[in-house]
Every structure is written in structure tokens, then in C-alpha cells.
Design goal:
The structure is a single chain. The chain is built from 6 helices and 7 strands. The strands form 2 sheets. A 4-stranded mixed sheet has the order 1-2-4-3, covered by helices on one side. A 3-stranded mixed sheet has the order 5-7-6, with helices on one face. The longest helix has 26 residues, at 84-109. It has 189 residues and is an alpha/beta fold. The chain folds into 2 domains: 2-75, no CATH class; 84-187, 2-Layer Sandwich (Zincin-like). Helix 4 (145-157) crosses helix 5 (166-175).
């Protein structure tokens, strides 16, 4: 659970880099992430002093500048803003595609799921809950269909294996033998 969120700035070589500092009660370490839209997010334990957070960020200044530049110069599918009507249409297209592919691939797995939700997620393509609900990002319809199918099969296989063990990947490989190749392509999007 988040205790507190603060907007801060970090100066590297005379240039200001805004970041959000989230204080998490159960965090043990400082964690740095760059969101898909280029926003800088730092998660730290509640009692961790701000000056040590800044020291941590400065120790990673070279990595930060390089990767922030990369994100800003190569916007990905998550950084594009869509209107409400576009989102509604994409959700409809994605739902049709997902249900069709789930029916097709589940012939091979015969797994039981409860609900399929199409959501406006900021950084995930899909997820599977322990209650056997499948969730997918509405942007799936904007991906090449073979990569979208990989994501659908990935989440479908989590109904049987709620981890990324060898057993899980063998399950994925049953219908997507080139899953590693598709996975690499997905990471570049």
C-alpha cells in the first residue's frame, strides 16, 4: 500500500528531470522505473531519507539519461493518447478478437475461465487472476495478430500454471512454438 506520493525534481548536468517519489510501507529497497510515457517513478521505504534517494538517482544518472532519451525518441504504443470514442471502438475490436482466439486456442488446452475483461491498462498487455478471470489491454487490436495471439495464449496458460516455470513455457509452446521470437518482438514495441 502506498503511504505517500510526492513530485520531485533531479538536476543532472544542469538539466531538470521530474520524478514521482512513492513511499511504500512494505518496500525494502529503492526502486527506479521509467514508465512507458517517459515518466520517472521512484519507490522507496517510508523511512528512507530523501537525500539518499537523490544519491541513488545520481548514481544511476548515466543510465537514466540514456534510457529517458530512448523512451522519448522511440514512443511506444502505450504513449499514444486515444479519445474516448477510439478507446470504445478499440475495446470492441479487441473483445471480438480475444474471444475468437480464446475459443480457438482453448480447444488444445480445455481450461476453464470465468470472465474476460478488456481494460485501459497503462503498462500490461494482459493478466490472469487467481479467480480465473482474464484481463487484456484494449491496445491488443493495434498489435500484429501473431503477437496478440501470443499474449492471449500466455494468459490462457496462466489458468493452469500461475507462474513462469518450465511447465508454463512448455504449455505455451504447445500452440506457439516460436513464442520466444514473438516475445522478443513484443519487447521492442
Amino acid at each position: 500500500m502506498f503511504k505517500k506520493t510526492e513530485d520531485k525534481r533531479l538536476n543532472i548536468n544542469g538539466e531538470d528531470y521530474p520524478y514521482t517519489l512513492r513511499r511504500k510501507r512494505y518496500a525494502k529497497y529503492v526502486r527506479l522505473t521509467i514508465e512507458h510515457d517517459g515518466a520517472l517513478m521512484v519507490t522507496a521505504p517510508v523511512t528512507y531519507p530523501v537525500f539518499l534517494v537523490k544519491r541513488f538517482l545520481l548514481s544511476r544518472a548515466r543510465w537514466l539519461v540514456k534510457n529517458l532519451t530512448k523512451v522519448k525518441n522511440n514512443p511506444n504504443i502505450f504513449s499514444f493518447k486515444h479519445s474516448e470514442s477510439q478507446i470504445k471502438e478499440y475495446k470492441k475490436q479487441t473483445r471480438t478478437f480475444v474471444l475468437d482466439r480464446l475459443n480457438y486456442y482453448n480447444q488444445y488446452y480445455n481450461l476453464e475461465f470465468k470472465r474476460v475483461a478488456i481494460r485501459n491498462q497503462k503498462s500490461r498487455w494482459g493478466s490472469c487472476s487467481s479467480q480465473k478471470n482474464l484481463n487484456f489491454n484494449y491496445r491488443l487490436c493495434l498489435l500484429p495478430s501473431d503477437i496478440a495471439e501470443y499474449i492471449i495464449v500466455h494468459e490462457l496458460c496462466h489458468l493452469q500454471e500461475m507462474n513462469h516455470s518450465v511447465k508454463f513455457w512448455r504449455l505455451v509452446e504447445k500452440t506457439i512454438p516460436d513464442y520466444k521470437f514473438r516475445q522478443k518482438r513484443l519487447k521492442k514495441i
